[in-house]
Amino acid sequence: MKVVICPTAERATALTARVIEQALRARPDIALGLATGRTMEAVYGHLVKAHRDGGLDFSACRTFNLDEYVGIAPTSPRSYRTYMNTHLFSRVNVPLDATHVPDGMATDMQAQCAAYEKAMRDSGGLGLQLLGLGENGHIGFNEPLSSLTSRTRLVTLDPATRRQNVGMFDDDLEQVPHHAVTMGVGTIADARRTLMVVTGATKAGILARVIEGPVTAGISATILQMHPDCLVIVDEAAAANLSCRPYIEYLMQHDPELKALLS
Ligand code: GLP
């Protein structure tokens, strides 16, 4: 795992977008694993800018989103499908039929999950998986106790997650679904590269446990410690509780890969 601490959330999300841009330029037909949440809105804003001003070409890539709420139709303004169309897909030149988001209304959820896994395999596997971090340490919607080898499946949301995401539901907790469909921890771990971006003081406590604590199914993001190619980009506020910070800063100056990224 490599960690970069940026002075601001703006710099962290811009750098995250730059890593995705470099991956897409290096391999235009890459299969990208994508994420949702407030943090990602800025990341996608930077990618849209790179498309408009820098000619970043999405025409050959394929995308697979991490998750979707069960019971929310793709056309609903609250679906992650709508989120993705709004923040990225309708603003760059990715063909819509190359974008995949689980369907929260699928009648046979198990069949959908198996088909989603197959579609990722058929696309050659995820070249890069973008990740945010839930306040309970989840990636995707892999809530505490998710098996570290889990695959795409139906899950029951942690009440903490429902509260964290109430903003998308007019601040009405009753309206937040109780279930979701999510790529599994094992699915995410299979991506060739993983890229997590974490900003804000509310994530400082959980981020320290993700980076420095023991690997545990209680915090699904700790699987990233086992990943051979994981980059974590954070802002100052999120980095506040990291005890290995001096070494992280040393690596930012001396690790060849990080030096190249930050130059
Ligand atoms: C949701 C998503 C996660 C995301 C998390 C963080 O729970 N399922 O994939 O990482 O939100 O969201 P935010 O960036 O809004 O803190």
TrEMBL record:
CC terms in the record's Gene Ontology section: cytoplasm
All copies of domain Glucosamine/galactosamine-6-phosphate isomerase, residue ranges: 9-213
Entry EC number(s): 3.5.99.6
Gene3D superfamilies: 3.40.50.1360
Top-level division of the source organism's lineage: Bacteria
UniProt cross-references to SUPFAM superfamilies, sorted A to Z: NagB/RpiA/CoA transferase-like
Short name of any one Pfam family annotated for the protein: Glucosamine_iso
Example of a GO MF term: identical protein binding
InterPro entries linked to this entry: Glc/Gal-6P_isomerase (IPR006148), Glucosamine6P_isomerase (IPR004547), Glucosamine6P_isomerase_CS (IPR018321), NagB/RpiA_transferase-like (IPR037171)
Presence of the UniProt keyword Nucleotide-binding in the record: no
Keyword Transferase: no
Keywords: Hydrolase
Any GO BP: carbohydrate metabolic process
Matching NCBIfam families: nagB (TIGR00502)
Protein name: Glucosamine-6-phosphate deaminase
Organism: Novacetimonas maltaceti
